[in-house]
Write a structure and sequence with these properties.
This protein is α/β, with parallel strands linked by helices. It folds into two domains: 268 residues, 3-Layer(aba) Sandwich (Aldehyde Dehydrogenase, Chain A, domain 1); 185 residues, Aldehyde Dehydrogenase, Chain A, domain 2. Helices cover 38% and strands 23% of the residues. Helix 13 links the parallel strand 16 and strand 17. The longest helix has 19 residues. The protein is globular. The protein binds nicotinamide-adenine-dinucleotide (NAD). Nicotinamide-adenine-dinucleotide binds next to helix 8 and helix 9.
């Protein structure tokens, strides 16, 4: 069986003998093995990253930009191949995988503009014959640790900008779908990126801890579950690293009585069940306000029953399996718990069977009505195709629910009332907000990040926040000509 290794200094390599299986979730069987990096592998990668960064940072931003532009065209050329790699190990449909690559590609497009993004600020005559300017310089070696659910897009939130800024980057992808990272690295080499500027180390917690403990790595970007995000945030800070750490989510979509119901239902179905609910911006709670509840639930229920669940290799599949047997069991336990706690199970995804794929990790769309705030299916992130409908009497109650929830990643409201929409976008305590759109994921030239338990750190991903995260500010104050001598000054200069 194929062994997936690290990509370090322009080639695949690994010394580790510790191999674990990578699964094809549609078939429920191993499709490859991945070598989990040991200390020697990590040191080889780190050495390569340190030496390459020194040279890379001396390249002009324009030259870096041209390599990124070439990289963009190579990703476009190989999108189909990349999508297949993702679908085999993740299970999502090909079209969904392609969409996620495009969203990552947009960050590469943004990073192509790095000469403009790195333009500094200049002030002439801050004092007599004294000028002052600010520039942003690279940090050095940066690292990223990423989740299984977007093996192309989430790493691409990080490394294109970091590398464009003149850093080298070490990516530690999820061990559940590691192949995509190798293809992304290989294409970057083909685009002309010098060896070692982008290295990939495979592994689990052990290599993440090596990253956290290395004083040579200046920043860490993390995306994954909240408990691990908290761990990364604390350990990185303890080791005096710059850190951005994105966690889990429980995204609510509010449907007002004046909403366009069909539009809202289509939005909910796609956002709740697309990618089997394994998106950090998936809608897992529909909040039905007032008298719209019965109609809303009926329509969601009817549509959910016609959803096509199947393997990515079937053209008509709209939703694939979940990532693993363990994760499937965890979701099934949540469903069981929801029933025990008194929610009304209208559609039970546990009963689904896909002919020819009986061992795959498939779950059908699951729908709960009459969910209450104190139930575990409402309080916790399930990360599967399970939608909870919670009924509230009015708009204020909907806002109260969302603002009191521990997570603060995304939310959305469907309404035809501009006042309500404006009040919502102003007062809701959530990082990414939609009005009449189901998944308000910001484009690459804005920034992606939640609030509360969904993000720890001061910076969101990509956009100008990304450029700030991956650079440090330097401000110079300079006096010319040099023959002005005015004697020492002992008070603060006041111009
Ligand atoms: P995870 O937290 O289990 O793993 C994420 C990464 O951390 C992986 O690379 C993994 O190897 C590593 N890791 C796991 N346990 C670790 C530990 N104890 N110490 C150090 N490193 C560890 O997450 P996942 O299951 O791969 O992904 C799903 C989660 O990611 C969900 O909670 C989802 O909401 C979240 N997510 C969030 C966003 C966002 O933007 N906020 C985006 C995508 C996914």
């Amino acid at each position: 069986m194929k062994v997936i290794k690290n990509y370090v200094h322009g080639k695949e390599q690994s010394t580790s003998k510790k191999l674990i299986d990578v699964y094809d979730p549609s078939k429920g069987e191993p499709c490859a093995r991945v070598a989990l990096s040991n200390n020697q592998d990590f040191e080889i990668a780190l050495k390569s990253s340190i030496s390459s960064q020194l040279e890379w940072s001396k390249q002009t931003p324009l030259k870096r930009s041209r390599i990124l532009a070439k990289y963009k065209s190579l990703i476009e050329r190989d999108t189909d191949k990349l999508a297949e790699i993702i679908s085999i190990e993740h299970g999502k449909t090909l079209e969904d995988a392609k969409g996620s690559i495009t969203r990552g590609l947009e960050v590469v497009e943004f990073a192509v503009g790095i000469p403009h993004l790195l333009k500094g600020e200049f002030s002439q005559n801050v004092g007599s014959n004294i000028d002052s300017w600010s520039i942003r310089q690279p940090l050095g070696v940066c690292a990223g640790v990423t989740p299984f659910n977007f093996p192309a897009m989430v790493p691409m939130w990080m490394f294109p900008i970091s590398i464009a800024c003149g850093n080298s980057f070490i990516l530690k992808p999820s061990e559940k779908d590691p192949s995509c990272s190798l293809k992304l690295a290989e294409l970057f080499s083909e685009a002309g990126l010098p060896d070692g500027v982008f290295n990939v180390v495979q592994g689990d917690k052990e290599v993440v801890d090596m990253i956290l403990n290395s004083s040579q790595i200046k920043s860490i970007s993390f995306v994954g579950s909240t408990p691990v995000a908290k761990y990364i945030y604390k350990e990185a800070a303890k080791n005096l690293k710059r850190v951005q750490s994105l966690g889990g989510a429980k995204n609510h979509l509010v449907v007002m009585p004046d909403a366009n119901l069909d539009q809202a239902v289509d939005g909910i179905i796609g956002a709740a069940y697309g990618s089997a609910g394994e998106r950090c911006m998936a809608v897992s709670v529909a909040v039905a306000v007032g008298e719209i509840a019965d109609k809303l639930v009926n329509k969601i229920h009817t549509k959910s029953q016609s959803l096509k669940v199947g393997p990515w290799s079937h053209n008509d599949s709209e939703m694939g399996p979940v990532i693993s047997k363990e994760h499937k069991e965890k979701i099934e336990q949540y469903i069981e718990q929801g029933v025990k706690e008194g929610a009304l199970l209208l559609e039970d995804g546990r009963k689904i069977k896909i002919q020819g794929y009986e061992n795959g990790y498939f779950l059908g769309p699951t729908l709960f009505d009459k969910v209450k705030e104190n139930m575990s299916i409402y309080k916790e992130e399930i990360f599967g195709p399970v939608l909870s409908v919670i009924r509230v009497k009015d708009y204020d109650s909907a806002v109260g629910l969302i603002n009191d929830h521990q997570y603060g990643n995304g939310t959305s409201i469907y309404t035809s009332n501009g006042d309500i929409a404006r009040h919502f976008t102003t007062n809701i305590k959530i990082g990414m907000v939609g009005v009449n759109v189901p998944i308000p994921v910001p484009m690459a030239f804005h920034s992606f990040g939640g609030w509360k338990e969904s993000l720890f750190g001061d910076y969101a991903m990509h956009g100008e926040e990304g450029v700030r995260f991956y650079t440090q500010l330097k401000t110079t104050t300079s006096r010319w000509p040099e023959n002005i001598i005015s004697g020492p000054e002992f008070k603060m200069p006041t111009n």
